[in-house]
Amino acid sequence: MDEELLKKRILELAEKAYHTGQYCFTSFLGLAEQDVLHRAEKAISYVPHSLYGGADGCERVMVRFGSESLCGYDMPFPISCVKAEPLSQKFADRLSHRDILGAVMNLGIDRSRTGDIVIRENVAYIFCTEQISQYICDGLVRAKHTDLSCSIATELPAGELFKTQTMQLNSASERLDGIASQFLKLSRSAVNELIASGKLFINGRCCMDGSKTLRSGDVVSMRGYGRFIYRETVRETRKGRLVIHVDAYV
Q1: Number of CB atoms found within 10 A of residue 12's CB
Q2: Alpha carbon distance 176, 230 (integer Å)
Q3: With b meaning 16 or more CB within 10 Å and e meaning fewer, what string describes 111-146?
Q4: Which of 39, 66, 115, 134 could cross-link to 60 by cystine, CB 3.0-4.6 Å?
Q5: Bridge partners for 206 per DSSP
Q6: Are 119 and 95 in contact (CB under 8 A)?
Q7: Tens-digit pLDDT profile for residues 141-179
Q8: What is the reported pTM?
Q9: Helix boundaries (H) for 114-164
Q10: Contact residues for 116 (Cβ-Cβ < 8 A; gap 6+)
């Protein structure tokens, strides 16, 4: 969606929720779209709003305008999770995010109606709007060369759906570009090119400043390259380098 159209839509939904006392929801927003939301937050600060993608750790999220105090009742996000698993794991291909996303898009579904897709033990979990969940279950019968069985998940796998792995990085400073270059194993200049092209986000906000210092809990997303949670600087080495802990999404 065009940035100005999206901003207009956000303002309209906020105003509608405020004046009618009814909850209003956006479609799923990607990182660039979330940045538009955050830049409009002053204009919608009079309306309670929250973000959620179906599970903790989701990168694509909906925005809900309204709250129990404003509307007088509670309403969950209209998000379902479709579980897609091979009919036979023994003969199944190793499925990837791209395989499942491509198969879902081939059903003619707009990307804004689907959230994150997570693969765990060769089973896909597809977050989507409630309205299209059954349509996906009925239509998603194959991905790559693998026949699938789909159902609406009543519960998610035990433990964290989005798994992370603690990494120890060795950086010259606490600057964002230095930490990201160590995480990606790229030169600092290459990372700054990513930053300049608007591909790096912190907590859903586009960051154009490579010198920024991260705070504990910040989620750093690099479109097409991965994401991590900055935890802390543990210590300084004898050579003056910093030992930094991050949790990388895997």
Answers
A1: 12
A2: 10
A3: ebbbbbbbeeeebbbbbbbeebbeebbebbeebbeb
A4: 115
A5: 201
A6: yes
A7: 999 999 999 999 988 887 778 889 999 999 988 899 999
A8: 0.92
A9: 130-139
A10: 53, 54, 55, 58, 59, 60, 127
